[in-house]
Structures are given as structure tokens and as C-alpha cells.
Amino acid sequence: MTRFALYVELKAKPGREEDVASFLANARSLVMAETGTIAWFAVRFDKTTFAIFDAFNDESGRTAHLNGAVAAALMANAADLLAVSPEIRQPTVLADKLPA
């Protein structure tokens, strides 16, 4: 069972909403190479609010993701795309249901 997760809320700058959506959609290919990332979701709540949620079996998977290509690209583009700095939260997974 997954025990570790990340939740990152993103607020797009006015006029950059579709750029954030494209960035997140394109980030999937980078995440696919991460063996320690068990589940990864990029979601949109409304016009300007997005989030990333991902889950890991162990702390080393979460740490690798935090030090990986998606995080580096996000931080490199944050000033151009985001209205506020992303808040990275590290919750504990209490229960899950994943494909076998």
C-alpha cells in the first residue's frame, strides 16, 4: 500500500491558465519514467486553480520525485506561470485503491 504522498496546489497567473494546463499535461511523460511514483494526477479545479497529487510506497520514491524533472521544471517556470509560489504538502496516505 502507498503510504506517502504529495499535494501541490497551483494558482495560474491571469492569462497563463492554458499554459499551466499544457505544462501539467506534458509533465506526464516525465513522471512515466519515475519508477517510485505509484500514482500521479494533475487536476484542474476551476479556471485558475490546478493541483498535482501523487503517491509513493516509500519516502525514497517521494524524495526522488521532489528532486526529479517535473519539480525542477515547475520551479524553473513558476515565476512566469504562477500567481503565487506552489505550496508543497506531504500528507500520509491512510488508505488507497489502486489497479492490481
Q: Characterize the overall form.
A: globular
- Strand order in space, largest sheet: 2-3-1-4
- Domain count, please report it: 1
The computed structural class is: alpha+beta
Per CATH, the class reads Alpha Beta
Terminal Cα separation, in Å?
Answer: 11 Å
- Radius of gyration, rounded? 13 Å
What's the helical proportion of residues?
25-40%
- Unreliable stretches (pLDDT < 50, length at least 5) are none
Overall pLDDT score: 96
Beta-strand fraction estimate: 25-35%
Our count of helices gives: 3
Specify the biggest β-sheet. 4 strands, antiparallel
Q: Work out the number of β strands.
A: 4
Helix/strand order, N-terminal first:
EHEEHHE
CATH architecture: 2-Layer Sandwich
Keywords:
100 residues; Alpha-Beta Plaits; globular; Quinol monooxygenase YgiN
How are the secondary structure elements laid out?
Blueprint lengths: L3 E8 L5 H15 L5 E8 L4 E8 L2 H8 L2 H13 L5 E3 L11
Antiparallel strand pairs: 1-3, 1-4, 2-3
Helix pairs in contact: 1-3
Describe what you observe in this structure.
The protein is an alpha+beta fold. It has one domain (4-89): Alpha-Beta Plaits, CATH 3.30.70. It has three helices and four strands, in the order βαββααβ. A four-stranded antiparallel beta sheet has the order 2-3-1-4, with helices on one face. The longest helix has 15 residues, at 17-31. The radius of gyration is 13 Å and the shape is globular.
Short précis:
About 35% of the residues lie in helices and about 25% in strands. With about 100 residues, the chain is α+β, with helices and mostly antiparallel strands. The protein has one domain (about 5-90): Alpha-Beta Plaits (2-Layer Sandwich), CATH 3.30.70.100.
